[in-house]
Design brief:
Structural class: alpha+beta
Radius of gyration: 55 Å
InterPro entries: NDR1-like (IPR044839)
Organism: Cucumis sativus
GO cellular component, one term: membrane
Protein name: Late embryogenesis abundant protein LEA-2 subgroup domain-containing protein
Shape: elongated
Order of helices and strands: HHHEEEEEEHEEEEE
Strand content: 25-35%
Number of helices: 4
Subcellular location: Membrane
């Protein structure tokens, strides 16, 4: 009986599984984690966050960065905070400034348009015209041009006509010149005058020549004037600057500066030594050119 019990114990020992061996650290299986919760990213490898100073690995499904370049997400700067975009005060200030500038620009455009339109309408209704200047008489006495003596007393009379049907003309100031070629022989100011609608007025000018600052500049002029006097006539130019105001009642006024050119006025002299010359008027008065 003792032998049978020993046989049974030996058979049970032979059929039992061997005892487990002590486990080593190198053969441990990887830990099993529960599936990631919906809405949260999966944990990094082995449950540890990346080391400080190193970018995280690319998400699953994307190839790693080629070569030694940093991952893709390091190329983009961090977006500014949401308060930068959603600050209502900044948005309100920008809106007010833009609206104010648009209002100023619109007002200026409307002002220019209204002024231009009103000027065009006024011009069409009033139709302002330039006065007409005609030389009636022109003469010089005690005329002499030389290095030692330079003198001359000039007198002229002009008729100034106002062709406007609705505008009066007020010549507030007028400056007159007597020129030989392009050399100014005398200069003075004439009296202002007023011309009513479709009327005319006489303008008288009186000028006196005085010695030039540099007599040497007049040597050629003296020679040319002497040659023309020997032929019997000398041509002079009578010119004006006229500061003029056009008015229609008390509601419309326009001021301009007119330039009047009465060119090639021939004065007759009796000889080379004559000091008195008179304008040879044609059948009609000499009409001057007017620019403004």
């Amino acid at each position: 009986m003792a032998s049978s019990s020993e046989d049974q114990q030996s058979q049970s020992k032979a059929t039992d599984p061997p005892p487990p061996h002590p486990s080593s650290a190198g053969n441990n299986p990887p830990p099993v984690y529960p599936p990631p919760t919906l809405g949260y990213p999966p944990p990094h490898g082995h449950g540890y966050s990346p080391a400080m100073g190193y970018p995280p690995p690319p998400p699953p499904g994307y190839p790693p960065a080629p070569g030694n370049y940093p991952p893709y997400n390091t190329y983009y700067a961090q977006a500014p905070p949401a308060a930068y975009y959603n600050n209502p005060q900044n948005y309100r200030a920008q809106t007010v400034s833009a609206g104010f500038l648009r209002g100023i620009v619109t007002a200026l455009i409307l002002l220019v348009a209204v002024m231009t339109l009103s000027s065009i309408i006024t011009w069409i209704v009033l139709r302002p015209q330039i006065p007409v200047f005609k030389v009636d008489s022109f003469s010089v006495s005690n005329f002499n041009i030389s290095k030692l003596n330079y003198s001359g007393n000039w007198n002229g009379s002009l008729t100034v006509e106002n062709p406007n049907h609705k505008l009066t003309v007020n010549i507030e100031r007028i400056q007159s010149f007597v020129n030989y070629k392009e050399n100014t022989l005398a200069m003075s100011y004439a009296d202002p005058f007023f011309i009513d609608v479709e009327k005319s007025s006489q303008m008288r000018v009186k000028l006196t020549s005085s010695s030039p600052d540099d007599p040497g500049n007049w040597l050629e002029t003296e020679e040319k004037v002497g040659q023309e006097k020997a032929s019997g006539t000398v041509s002079f130019n009578l010119r004006f600057f006229a500061w003029t105001a056009f008015r229609s009642g008390s509601w419309w006024t326009r001021r301009i500066v007119m330039k009047v050119f009465c060119e090639d006025l021939k004065l007759a002299f009796t000889g080379p030594a004559a000091t008195h010359g008179v304008y040879l008027a044609d059948a009609h008065s000499k009409t001057c050119s007017v620019l403004f």
